[in-house]
Design the sequence.
């Protein structure tokens, strides 16, 4: 007798790539984490954690965090759902709104976790190719015949942003659910968020995370904004205490320090833009990025290393970046933006290896 359901047996787990050992001094530019610490207010909240907060169950409705988020985004508390990282929200969306034998379309390449999650709920996922320049073809998505569409915007791992007008056109013409994963929106041009669409379109869910711009990957907090019926459905299907007391307190503290977030995001964008200039001067082709990473193609030519070899050479020097086996990504590297010092170290290694 087999104990494991066939669709779980068949599942290909989400690939994380090579990871440095915990506590290593590697330059880690492979998971799009923030190179800066969380706000001092977050660290203060952690230090002043009370006995009571550990002894009691946390509020199942997550009222404090939802209230802070509703103020930030100008929506109602009832339009917000908080989760144990946006990964949990992605799972709950697929579980509650897509499910067995229904189809979810997403651009390709994009965040492959969506394919894994679809398979784990027996939903199918359809990869809709992006254009040659990796821009998203909304026409193909709209006509995909799928029950739901997922747009990672800005997209990962390409860094490309679909303008809000195009997002709205897609949302208004597609009758099914449209999930817009805005994990990287804080690093994009202002005004690109689809949150304003939520009041006008009942079929939109905007997913956000504290992992990237707030430097809280380890705390695992995400949220989504949608019309009230969708939020109520997510509330019903979640684990009762899906966000622990510590993490939600840290997320509330992070929201209080708007200046700090703005400063660190601005610093990251400046580092990104100068790193792109450096890469191009070394002959790398770089897709314009609206995120905290760049997708780049090393210079081709006889005797020059290909992307896989570059990946190995960087790894040998304790620099972790990302290489994907996907046919449209195999000649590229995705490099997260670190501090100025880290990017200078990467640039120096690249320059040295090219010489
Ligand atoms: C990093 C990332 C997330 C965030 O995941 P968390 O579970 O909130 O840490 C979500 N979507 C995409 C596309 C990402 O790259």
Sequence:
């Amino acid at each position: 007798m087999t104990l494991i359901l066939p669709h779980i047996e068949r599942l290909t787990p989400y690939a994380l790539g090579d990871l440095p050992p915990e506590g290593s001094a590697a330059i880690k530019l492979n998971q799009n984490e923030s190179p800066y610490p969380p706000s001092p207010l977050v660290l203060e909240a952690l230090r002043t954690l009370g006995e009571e907060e550990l002894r009691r169950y946390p509020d199942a409705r997550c009222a404090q965090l939802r209230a802070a988020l509703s103020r930030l985004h100008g929506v109602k508390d009832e339009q917000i759902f908080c989760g144990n990282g946006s990964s949990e929200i992605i799972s709950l969306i697929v579980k509650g709104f897509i499910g067995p034998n229904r189809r979810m379309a997403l651009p390709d390449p994009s965040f492959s976790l969506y394919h894994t999650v679809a398979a784990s709920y027996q939903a199918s996922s359809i990869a809709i190719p992006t254009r040659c320049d990796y821009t998203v073809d909304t026409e193909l998505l709209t006509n995909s015949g799928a029950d739901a569409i997922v747009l990672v915007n800005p997209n990962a791992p390409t860094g490309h942003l679909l303008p809000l007008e195009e997002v709205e056109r897609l949302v208004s013409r597609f009758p099914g659910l449209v999930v817009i994963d805005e994990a990287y929106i804080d690093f994009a041009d202002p005004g690109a968020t689809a949150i304003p669409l939520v009041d006008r379109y009942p079929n939109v869910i905007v997913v956000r995370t504290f992992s990237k711009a707030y430097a809280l990957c380890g705390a695992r907090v995400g949220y989504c904004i949608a019309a009230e019926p969708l939020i109520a459905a997510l509330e019903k299907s979640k684990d009762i205490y899906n966000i622990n007391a510590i993490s939600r307190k840290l997320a509330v503290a992070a929201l209080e320090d708007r200046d700090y977030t703005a400063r660190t995001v601005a610093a990251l964008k400046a580092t990104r833009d100068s790193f792109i200039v450096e890469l191009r001067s070394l002959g790398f082709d770089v897709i314009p990025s609206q995120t905290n990473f760049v997708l780049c193609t090393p210079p081709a030519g006889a005797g020059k290393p290909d992307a896989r070899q570059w990946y190995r050479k960087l790894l040998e020097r304790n620099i972790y970046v990302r290489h994907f086996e996907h046919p449209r990504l195999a000649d590229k590297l995705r490099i997260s933006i670190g501090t100025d010092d880290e990017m200078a170290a990467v640039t120096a290694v690249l320059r040295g290896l090219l010489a």
Notes: DSSP finds 13 helices and twelve strands in the chain. Residues 32, 85-87, 111, 152, 156, 181, 183, 209, 211-212, 217, 222 surround pyridoxal-5'-phosphate (CB under 6 Å).
